[in-house]
Amino acid sequence: MAEEAAVVSRPTQQLSSRAGWSDIKARHPWLVFLLSRVARLVVVCALLLVGTFLMVRLMPGDPARRILGLQATPEAVELTRHRLGLDRSQFEQLWSYCRNALHLDFGESFSQGVPVRELIAERFPKTVELAAAATMVLLIVGFGVGTLMAVLTRDGRRPRLDATYGTSMGALSAVPDFVLAALFAVVFGLYLKWFPVAGDNGLSSLTLPTLAVAIPGIGFLSRVVRAEALDVLSQNYVRTARAKRLTSWRIYVRHVMPNAAYGGVTLAGVSFASLVGGTVVVEQVFNWPGMGSALTSAVVNRDYPVVQAGVLLLGATVVIVNTLVDVLLAIVDPGALREN
C-alpha cells in the first residue's frame, strides 16, 4: 500500500508543481516575464564573455612579437609575454579576464598602453551615435514608406506602382552597406563634394554613414510594414470605421499604424544587430572615430584586451536592445505575457 501511495503521489506532486508555476504566471505575469528576460540577458552576456576570450586566442600571431617586431630577441619576447600575462595558462587568463570584466576592468591596450575603459569611453559613444541615427532613419522612413504603399496599393490598386516598389525595395535590401558606403563616398563626397568623406565634423559627416547603414534595412522593414498594414486594412474594424465616416487620417493613425507597428518593431529590434555590425564596417570607409576603427586596428595588432572588450560591448548592446524591444512589445500587447 505504501508503494502504491508513493507511485500515486509522484504524478500528483508533478501536477501540483506545474499548477503552482502556472498560478505564479497567472498572478504575476510581468514579474515572471522580466525575470526570464533578465536571466536570458545574464546567460547571453556570460557566453559572450567566454566566447570573446576564446575567439581572440584563436587569432594567429603573437602579440608580444607584434609589439617588439620581428628583430626582437627571444628573451625580450618572453619578458613582454610575462608583462602582458600571456605566459600564464589559458584557464588562469580566462579566470582573471572574467573576474576583472565583472568590475568593468578590461586591462590595458597592448598596442597603445592606455586603459581599455578609457578607449571605450572615447570611441563607443560615436558608434552609438551612428547606430542611433541609422535606427531613427530606418524606423521613420521604413514605417512611413511601408504604410503609404499599403494605402496606395490596397485592394489591388496601382499594380505597376506595387511592382516597381517591390523590385526597388528588394534591390535596396540586397545591396551590402559597405558597397553603399563606398558609392556614397565617391559620388557625394569626392565628385559632388556635398558632404565630407572622412572624420567627424558634425551633422554633415554623419549623413553619409547613416544612410549607408540604414538604407538596406529600410527596404526590408518597409515591405514588412506594408504587409502588416494591408492585413490591418482588410480587417472588419477598419471597414466599420470607414462606414462610420471617420476621416482617413484618424483611421490610419489610430487603427492602422499601431496595429501594423507590432511586426515592424519586432523586425526593427532584430535588425539592430545588423545595424551595429554595419556601423563597424561603414566606420572604416568614412574613417568615423568609433569602435569599428578601434576593433580593426586591434585585430591587426593582436590587441587582445581591446578586441575582447569591443566585441563584448557590442554584443551586450545588441542583447540589451532586443530585451528592451521585448518589453516594449509586451507593453503594446499584454496578452503575449501569458504565452511566454
From TrEMBL:
The chain crosses the membrane at residues 30-56, 130-153, 174-194, 206-225, 260-286, 306-332. Residues 124-325 form the ABC transmembrane type-1 domain. It is a multi-pass membrane protein. Keywords: Cell membrane, Membrane, Transmembrane, Transmembrane helix, Transport. The keyword Membrane applies. Its main location: membrane. Pfam families: BPD_transp_1, BPD_transp_1_N. It comes from the Bacteria. It is found in: Cell membrane. Belongs to the binding-protein-dependent transport system permease family. PANTHER family: DIPEPTIDE TRANSPORT SYSTEM PERMEASE PROTEIN DPPB-RELATED. This is ABC transporter permease. It comes from Microtetraspora glauca. The lineage of its organism: Bacteria, Bacillati, Actinomycetota, Actinomycetes, Streptosporangiales.
